[in-house]
Automatic annotation (TrEMBL):
Organism of derivation: Cellulomonas rhizosphaerae
Name of the protein described by the UniProt record: Type II secretion system protein
Keywords: Membrane, Transmembrane, Transmembrane helix
Regions that span the bilayer: 50-69
Compositionally biased intervals (Basic residues): 8-25
InterPro entries reported for this sequence: N_methyl_site
Coiled-coil intervals, chain numbering: none
Length: 255
């Protein structure tokens, strides 16, 4: 019986798998490791990493602000061009009405500074009528000394002004007019002055039926590289075919 009991006990001990005993760490060791891990997590970024991140951020912000600034500048230029062009178009409409009802249109090439205070091609004189009232009107573009931005001015007088008076003072109708970049080349629209007659449209040296009016305007606040707004039109005097005397508006009052 004893032998049988020992044999049975041996078989049970052979069937069990012994597990290795786990060594329990002391509490202070566990706390030390936890504190070390926490301190390792609190280290953050290094100085080099911060410099790289800040450099990338500053570069991106510079690009964004540059794009926004360029868009704002373009918007401002477009608004300035639109407002300037609208101002000139109103003036051109007034010139158009006077030329269309004009009886005599003097050739701007023949105008002198003593008659208008402006260079040739920068003055226009018309003998016109409105509602049965006959009058002489004169337009000019003048520039102050050392100023690249000129004024479009207008005045009128009665043909009998020497006897009856009635010469109006110059009135400014548009500002910030700029000159063409080059001398006149009639084949190149970018060189057209404010007033001129094409050679094949002039009846005589001092009487013209059709006038080319070109006004360029640029707001002084526009960026230096922006282009001026250009308004141009061909105006025809319908009554010039009736042969009114070319010197109807002569002599001209002093400018």
């Amino acid at each position: 019986m004893a032998a049988c009991s020992r044999s049975s006990s041996r078989r049970r001990s052979v069937g069990r798998v012994r597990r290795p005993r786990t060594r329990r760490r002391p509490v202070h060791e566990i706390l030390r490791r936890a504190r070390a891990a926490r301190e390792s997590d609190d280290r953050g970024y290094t100085l080099v990493e911060l410099i790289v991140v800040m450099s990338i951020f500053v570069g991106l912000m510079a690009i964004v602000f540059g794009i926004m600034l360029q868009m704002a500048r373009q918007t401002k230029d477009n608004l300035a061009r639109t407002e300037a062009a609208a101002q000139v178009r109103i003036s051109l409409m007034q010139i158009d009405r006077q030329v269309r009802s004009g009886n005599v249109i003097s050739d701007p090439k023949q105008e002198s500074s003593s008659e208008s205070g402006a260079d040739k091609y920068y003055s226009l004189r018309v003998y016109t009528q409105t509602d049965g009232v006959y009058q002489c009107v004169q337009w000019r573009v003048v520039f102050a000394t050392g100023n690249d931005f000129g004024r479009l001015e207008y005045r009128s007088w009665k043909p009998s002004w020497q006897a009856t008076g009635g010469v109006d003072a110059w009135r400014v109708v548009a500002r910030d007019i700029v000159r063409p970049a080059k001398a006149l080349d009639k084949a190149d629209p970018t060189t057209w002055p404010p007033f001129f007659v094409e050679d094949n449209q002039a009846e005589t040296s001092s009487n013209a039926q059709t006038i080319r009016v070109t006004l360029r305007v640029k707001d002084p606040d526009q960026s230096e590289g922006s282009k001026p707004a250009t308004v141009t039109s061909t105006l025809t005097g319908r009554n010039t075919i009736f042969g009114y005397p070319a010197d109807t508006c002569s002599p001209v009052p002093a400018p």
